[in-house]
Structure formats: C-alpha cells, structure tokens
Amino acid sequence: MRIMKKAFGRGLADLILIGIILGSIFPFLYMFLMSFRSTINAYDFSFSLDKFTLQQYIKIFQMDYFVNYVLNSVIVAVAGVLLTLTVCSLAGYAFAKMNFKGNDKLFLFLFLTLIVPSEVIIVPLFLITKGLGWLNTYQALILPLPTAFGVFIMRQAILDIPSDLMDAAKLDGCGNLQTLVRVVLPIVRGALLTLAIFTFVGAWNNFLWPLVACTRQEMKTLPLALSAMKTQYNTDVGLTMACAVINFLPPFLFYLFMQSKFKEGMTLGGVKE
Length: 273
Known about the structure:
By secondary structure, the chain is mainly alpha-helical. Helices cover about 70% and strands about 0% of the residues. It is globular, with a radius of gyration of 24 Å.
C-alpha cells in the first residue's frame, strides 16, 4: 500500500512538471508558428502548410539600416559584457578581500541602490549624457550597463575563496591585480559566466534607455527598430511575432552556448585540496 502511494505521488508530480513544461513552451511555440503567418487574428490556430509564408521575415530584412541595427545591438551587448565583468570583478574583489575605511558602509550604500527602479534615474542619466555630448553614441549605451547587482554577485563569489590562497599568491610576489587575474577569476568562473549571461540578455533586450539616448536611425538597436514595425495601423500578428523571434533568438543562442561553459566553470571552480 505504501509503495502504491509513493508511485501515485511520483506519477502526480511528473504530470504536474510536464504540465508546467508544456505551459512554458507553448508561448514560444505559438510565437514561432505565428511568425510564418499573415493574419490579423491572434487566435487563428490553423497552421496548415499552405498558409505558411516567409513574407514577414523578408519585410524585416528589407528594412533600412537593418544591418546597423543588428551591429549596434551586438556591439552594445558584447562591449557591455566585457565592461561589466571588468568593473564588477575589480569592485567585487575590493569589497570582498581588501580592508579599507568604510568598506562595509560603502558596499551597503551601493547595495541599497538595487531597490531604486531603473526608470527613476532615466532623467538624470539623460541630462548627464547630454551634458557630456554622448547622445547617439556607443558610450551612452554601454557605460550605464554595469550595476550594483554585478558587484554583489562577484563579491559574494569572491568571499568564499579562502584567504590562504591570497596570502600564498602574495608570498609568490603577486600584487592585488595579479592575484585577481591569476587566482581569483579562475575560481569564480561560474559567477563570471552567470553575470555575462544576465548582462548580455539585459543589454540586448534593453528598450527604454536606448529609446531615450538614441534619436538617429543608424544608432538605434534591434529592439527599437523592430518595435517600429508595429504601428498603430498595422495589426498583422504574424509580423509582430516575426519581430519577436528575431529579437529573441540571439540572447537565447548566447544562453545555450554559455550554459555549457557555465557548467564547466562550476566544475573547475572548486578548490582542490
């Protein structure tokens, strides 16, 4: 009887998990299939092959400055990842392993900025950017990407590293920067890859700040350009879904690639006795 109850419980749990998985996959499947349709009815689930068309994708790839949009998004996302990893690693190491006056208070102040919505700082950030003459430039899109969240992730990862490793590196003649590069970063590789994934996805999908900082067509990013495809008088659901697919694929593929590296980092990141 007890065995039957356990089997029933496992079966029920499996059914619930399968339902959750199907519910999570359905929106993406709907988006992909509808992108090959030309319809104004969002509930038209007739997916016969004779109604499938590539016209929506052709229309998107024929946009003016489409290459610029893609290139801008790639530059901003990749440069944002590199800048975020550099800045957050340095700051995380300083807050975790360097003793200086006001360390804890400064980190607490930095951590409290996480509760401030990003929309609140749009206006002051715009005024600063405008004052520096950086509107419609890559600097305006890339430099605001590092955040306190990245510093927090790196600090927490570095705190777990035994101080004996730091002391051994310093006895070998390594300075703080050499210790960070040669000892710390290889150990916290998993945290670096996690931060890289978050930063890339966030930078690629960022909409509000590029909308404010970029007014010239050749400097706009892909989410801005694709949103312009849907106007007040264009209700083609297929075109909207095709835009969503194109904007979704790059960060999704980046995540799939980095996920395997992330697992390797977690394996290699352990401290061997």
